[in-house]
């Protein structure tokens, strides 16, 4: 059980991380897991954290941060395993909410068919649910679930949760090259997200840190752009998490900087790029220069040209 940060998070701003599960107890052992292989596969909920003690430590840490003038936007349950395995999660969230700071939970959604898990998550202000594949076989190959889990039940549970949840719901889909990054699967995932979850935002991520299975590869920029297009065509507000901490919210007069900031968050359609250039009184030569310098790339997808940020080590 640990508290870490605050760390800057593109999704949550300045986030104080709270770990309520012992190291690597999870219901999945995802091929891309950046924490490493799961040490104990589990689906039975147990009391892992002591909410009173953990919340007291968080409150103490918050008073220290007040003294140093550091801001905390979210208290985020982001453990080295699956947070909903903790039977004390609901009480922990209620105690954390006493601080007045919004509370977020990042979950793999595997236990969401259980009513008590949904009830616990309803307490959170912000919830992210994982949806890597709609096809059961792909779900098994990517997330490598505990054998007792049923994919159909999870999808129904997610739908039920989304119907009643009053907070900010997000989804996260991790793309693994050659597995779930093809258009057929992504269209199924996008349709499910759009029709059954209607999240505030869907995040598409790629494995940017060493994965649990060494053969896992990051999809290329073209594939990420295609995934983004497939999601947005379903009317989903989508962002990509490709390892950049670019700041799309920075107000700048420099069109090049603005395009780099936005493409750090998601690929940009050529008409949007032209609009930025027009607003800033610039012309397409600046974008040609970025392409020539190898900082962004032009990608054709469907009827549109997209601009995608080129990922380089050191820029992450
Ligand atoms: S659900 Fe999260 S913690 Fe569990 S194996 Fe997958 S990536 Fe790792």
TrEMBL record:
Transmembrane segments: none annotated. Keywords: 4Fe-4S, Iron, Iron-sulfur, Metal-binding, S-adenosyl-L-methionine. The keyword Iron-sulfur applies. Gene3D superfamilies: Aldolase class I. InterPro entries: Aldolase_TIM, GTPase_Obg, rSAM, rSAM_sf. Signal peptide: none annotated. Its cofactor is [4Fe-4S] cluster. Residues 8-245 form the Radical SAM core domain. GO terms for molecular function: 4 iron, 4 sulfur cluster binding; catalytic activity; metal ion binding. This is Wyosine [tRNA(Phe)-imidazoG37] synthetase, radical SAM superfamily.
């Amino acid at each position: 059980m640990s508290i870490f940060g605050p760390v800057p998070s593109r999704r949550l701003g300045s986030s104080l991380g709270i770990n309520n599960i012992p190291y690597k107890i999870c219901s999945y052992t995802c091929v891309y897991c950046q924490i490493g292989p799961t040490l104990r596969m589990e689906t039975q909920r147990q009391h892992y954290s002591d909410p009173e003690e953990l919340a007291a430590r968080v409150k103490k840490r918050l008073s220290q941060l007040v003294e140093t003038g550091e801001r905390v936007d979210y208290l985020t349950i982001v453990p080295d395993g699956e947070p909903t395995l903790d039977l004390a999660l609901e009480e922990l969230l209620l105690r954390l909410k006493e601080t007045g700071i919004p509370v977020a939970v990042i979950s793999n959604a595997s236990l969401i068919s259980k009513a008590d898990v949904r009830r616990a998550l309803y307490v959170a202000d912000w919830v992210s649910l994982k949806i890597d594949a709609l096809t059961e076989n792909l779900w098994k190959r990517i997330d490598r679930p505990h054998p007792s889990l049923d994919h159909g039940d999870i999808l129904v549970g997610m739908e039920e949760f989304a119907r009643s949840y009053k907070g900010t719901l997000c989804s996260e889909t991790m793309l693994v090259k050659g597995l779930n990054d093809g258009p057929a699967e992504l269209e199924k995932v996008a349709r499910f997200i759009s029709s059954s979850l209607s999240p505030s935002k869907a995040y598409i991520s790629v494995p940017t840190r060493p994965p649990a299975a060494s053969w896992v590869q990051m999809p290329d920029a073209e594939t990420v752009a295609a995934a983004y297009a497939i999601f947005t065509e379903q009317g989903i507000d989508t962002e990509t998490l490709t390892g950049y901490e670019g700041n799309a919210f920075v107000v700048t007069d420099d069109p090049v900087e603005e395009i780099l900031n936005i493409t750090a968050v998601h690929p940009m359609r050529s008409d949007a790029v032209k609009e930025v250039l027009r607003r800033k009184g610039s012309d397409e030569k600046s974008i040609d220069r970025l392409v020539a310098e190898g900082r962004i790339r032009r990608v054709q997808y469907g009827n549109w040209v997209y601009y995608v940020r080129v990922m380089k080590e050191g820029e992450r």
